[in-house]
Amino acid sequence: MRTIVVVAILATFGGLEPAEVSAQSLPTFKSSVEVVPISAVVRDRRGRTVTTLVSDDFVVLDKGERRPILDFQIDQAGPITLAVLVDVSGSMRLGSKLALSRAVVTRIVADLEDGRDEVGLFTFDDTLHEQLAFTVHTASIDAALNGAEPFGTTSLYDAIAETARELGARPARRRAIVVLTDGVDTSSALTPPEVSALASAIDAPVYVVVTGPRIDHAAYLDREARRTAQSPADLGDLAAWTGGDLLWVTAGEEVPLRAHQILTELRHQYMLAIESATEREWRPIDVHVRDRRMSVRARSGYFSHDNVLSR
Fold first, then answer.
1. How far apart are CA 65 and CA 11, in angstroms?
2. What is the pTM of this model?
3. Sheet containing 71-74: order of strands
4. Tell me, what's the pLDDT at 304?
5. Distance between CA 181 and CA 246 in Å, rounded?
6. Which CATH entry fits the domain spanning 80-254: 3.40.50.410, 3.40.1360.10, 3.30.70.100, 3.20.20.70?
């Protein structure tokens, strides 16, 4: 059984050990590229989306080396492809977790442009289930989700990785994974660094929407406040490393806000491109803007020249 080493996990993720990954346990991506596309979202100090920047405002470092930006676009009218992934494991039976998840999905889909934007629906417990193949007829997603009943253990990280494989086959430039879950993983073989590397490799930000009671959110914030450099990676890290975000929904009134935030970011992405490195390896990249008062979310790296989980 062939194995590969994701050589830059340590450099990219700050203190994590490089992960030796079984090629049979991970999805295969075709990512041999000469040009590396990078979608980026920029926010100011108050969290507002910044949409007025030009190419010269950006700096891209590829394995620490500055790379010229070969292409730069701001396209707010282009179609979006979303892979929506809903946790239907047994823990989602508790309280209003699944109901809130369904509400978020319904709101996001309602704001998509029918006939133009594309959406696919997947659910998971210990395995991934395709509920609705990718379609531009977005109204059909509600019926596809209604039959899901919570059961079984939770392979959250594995499901995100497999969904990334499905999304990687879609041609749209602007694409993302939206995960609805209570944040509990009980049976995945993969880790957050491994999954984030896979999603980053296809430039697919992962937005994780955690649904649950306020007490769970408070407990999460407390854990985050006590984290150290040695703390294991979690869902928040996974989302950040892909250029996405971790969001919480604890009550129905928060549903429209979270749905709007995700779609606003996807419709206000900057599209950059750099030349791929010639070495066959995982390449960490860092994207920032000259104005340090602004923050950038973008993919954390890419696999250069087809060095990606090939059998």
1. 14
2. 0.87
3. 71-74, 270-275, 35-43, 295-298
4. 84
5. 11
6. 3.40.50.410
